[in-house]
Amino acid sequence: MRYDFLVPARTLFGWGRFAEAGAAARALGTRAFIVSGSRQLERDGTLDRLDALLKQAGVQPVRAGSIHREPRVEDVDRLAAAVREKMALVGSAAGPAGHLVIGIGGGSAIDLAKAASAMAANRESPTVKDYLEGVGKNLSLKQPPLPMLAIPTTAGTGSECTKNAVISSDEGEPIPFKKSLRSDLMVPRAVLLDPQLAVSMPPEVTARTGMDAITQLIESAISCKAQPIPTALAFHGLSLALPLIERAVKNPLDQEAREGMAHAAYLSGITLANAGLGMAHGVAAALGISAAVPHGLACAVMLPAALEANGGARPAEIARVARLLTRHEYQSDEEAARAAPAAVRELCRRIGIPLRLRDVGVRKEQIPAIVKGSRGNSMNGNPRPIDDAELAAILESML
Ligand SMILES: [Zn+2]
After folding, report:
1. Of 39, 111, 49, 42, nearest to 79 (Cα)?
2. Confidence of residue 38 (pLDDT cuts 50, 70, 90)
3. 56 C-alpha vs ligand 1 centroid, how far in Å?
4. How far is the CA of 65 from the centre of ligand 1 (A)?
5. Distance, CA 15 to ligand 1 centroid (Å)?
6. Which of 17, 68, 254, 319 has an alpha carbon within 20 to 30 A of 89's alpha carbon?
7. Torsion sign (Cα): 30, 150, 136, 73
């Protein structure tokens, strides 16, 4: 056996622990660049409360930027330049006596914060494009990013514990792209995970982000890069999320359901960072680019097809998914694995996730571009190879 296993150095998990944000930040520095997501955090006073908590702990808050969409090259470049400029004004030390970055929000805000903290410390090129996988100059990070505290407010992407940030561009060559800035150095130093912060998330977002976490857990458990620790964590996460997602969607104030989903999403970040993903995520990236389908929704729509395509390659693992979703007594793993796609479709139906690609705006003529755009890093983890013709046929059957 041989593996690497990377996780954030410190995690503070628990209902109401946002109150400890100041102390968690103070352990990393004394001046915090805050990168935030959703406008909801401004409206409901969460950001003002964060400022106050930081000041109480002796940390100077600096609102560095906010984002309301998935981050693009220009968002990262602009934010990194602003952070560098502010650091130059007061001296550029990072760490306990100096600067840190706080990313607060959903996956987009945390990815933007991760990318900006990396680019603030690495200056061989002024644009993050040169550091992305498969585009630009393929530079790698030489310097550790500014220390980062991640405070996720949705339960989905797990970006708070991964080593990559997903960055897109409308102006890619030859086609628009969605690629990763990836380095072992990019795992956030600390995570503050307070499930109470997710109670204001609308049901539709709870459903999508929750299905993203579930897809991440399943794909890393069946991945051809699967490893013993991530697989154990993935099934622990699935044992929480599969029975609880419907409750979290239908009753936003259900504390047990919110805690379960937040914990599952956090685990899904650890599992995907250490064991990779598969076909559903490969296609989801392309659906985001070609048809602007939100990430979690794209994963959810693709998950049943991914289970169908991989049932023969990973019957034991996929059978466990079916057994967590239904009470039926299956005679064999093979029988249970064959039932898993229908069980996931039924779950999607109950939480309002559409099943067909046309329901998320995909047209037949887009399929060749989607097939082409699916060949990213995620697809490399799929338990068996799926060639372009097979993938096109799967997508056409889902229209
Ligand atoms: Zn995902």
Report:
1. 111
2. confident
3. 36
4. 24
5. 24
6. 68
7. negative
Ligand 1 centroid from CA 43, angstroms: 27
* pTM exceeds cut of 0.85: yes
Distance 303 CA to ligand 1 centre (A): 11
Full set of structural domains in the chain with CATH: 10-198 (3.40.50.1970), 203-397 (1.20.1090.10)
Q: φ and ψ at 278, to 5 degrees? A: -160, -150
Compute, in angstroms, the gap from residue 29 CA to the centroid of ligand 1.
30
pLDDT one-digit tens code per residue, 352-391: 999 999 999 999 999 999 999 999 889 999 999 999 999 9
Residue 28 φ/ψ, nearest 5 degrees:
-110, -15
For ligand 1, the distance from its centroid to the CA atom of residue 331, given in whole angstroms, is 32
Mark out the alpha helices in the chain (DSSP H runs). 21-26, 39-43, 46-56, 73-90, 107-121, 203-222, 228-250, 255-275, 279-291, 295-310, 315-325, 333-350, 367-373, 388-397
Is 348 a residue whose pLDDT tops 80? yes
